[in-house]
UniProtKB/TrEMBL annotation:
One Pfam entry name: VTT_dom
Record's protein name: TVP38/TMEM64 family membrane protein
Subcellular location: Cell membrane
Bilayer-crossing regions: 50-71, 83-104, 127-147, 159-178, 190-208
InterPro entries assigned to the protein according to its UniProt record, in alphabetical order: TMEM64 (IPR015414), VTT_dom (IPR032816)
Domain (VTT) ranges: 62-179
Family recorded in the similarity comment: Belongs to the TVP38/TMEM64 family.
PANTHER family: GOLGI APPARATUS MEMBRANE PROTEIN TVP38-RELATED
UniProt keyword terms in alphabetical order: Cell membrane, Membrane, Transmembrane, Transmembrane helix
GO cellular component: plasma membrane
Membrane topology designation: Multi-pass membrane protein
Length: 219
């Protein structure tokens, strides 16, 4: 049964990679007008479809989550976009963790033995705080955290809650970036106050995240 489920996931992943539009900012801008029209005509359906696509992308670790976050910022705004992306990203991360725990355990253990030992040491030493630190300033890639955490005894609801809080600052910053990018009409708009603030926030995000982690560790 597990092999069959894994085979289905592989097929779905391959089809998505083949038929998804190019993962670039140019492609994002190209489809933005059509997406805006759908959102204007069918706001609820558009939000639901976007949510499901985001969950699928994060669950299967398909490249494109950052572009989807920028798109959410341009279309849904900061408040609705934060709710959609935060819940979708956390649901996808949790599903990926559960897939690792119940379907891919042996493969993940063999493939990522070295980082798995580091994760185990961190969880034994610092518990849920270690997961929070990884989410806030990821030492490992997003997908790898999901896979490796599936092999730890962490409870699903705790994983969901800590991941949600840890990913929230980056989500808000990228949503704001999407809002500003959607306002670009000419190259001179790059020097607008909003764009300058966006670049500052993007640059400060990793520095502030590391500072928060240090403060929490000391306390």
């Amino acid at each position: 049964m597990r092999k069959l489920l894994f085979a289905i996931l592989v097929v779905v992943f391959a089809l998505l990679v083949i038929y998804m539009p190019p993962g670039s900012l140019a492609a994002l801008q190209h489809y933005q007008a059509q997406f805006s029209l759908w959102h204007l005509q069918h706001p609820l359906q558009t939000a639901v479809v976007f949510f499901l696509i985001y969950v699928l992308v994060t669950t299967l670790s398909i490249p494109g989550a950052t572009l989807l976050t920028l798109l959410a910022g341009s279309q849904f705004g900061l408040v609705q976009g934060t709710a959609l992306v935060a819940m979708a990203a956390t649901c996808g991360a949790t599903l990926a963790m559960l897939i690792s725990r119940y379907l891919l355990r042996d493969w993940v253990q063999r493939r990522f033995a070295a980082p798995m030992s580091a994760i185990n040491r961190g969880m034994e030493r610092e518990g849920l705080y270690y997961l929070f630190a990884l989410r806030l300033t990821p030492v490992f890639p997003f997908f790898l955290i999901n896979l490796l955490m599936g092999l730890t005894p962490i409870k699903t609801l705790r994983y969901f809650a800590v991941s949600l809080v840890g990913m929230l600052p980056a989500i808000v910053v990228y949503l704001n970036a999407g809002r500003e990018l959607s306002k670009l009409r000419t190259l001179s708009d790059i020097l607008s106050p909003g764009m300058i603030v966006m670049f500052i926030l993007l640059g400060l995000l990793p520095l502030v995240s590391r500072r928060i982690v240090r403060i929490l560790r000391k306390s």
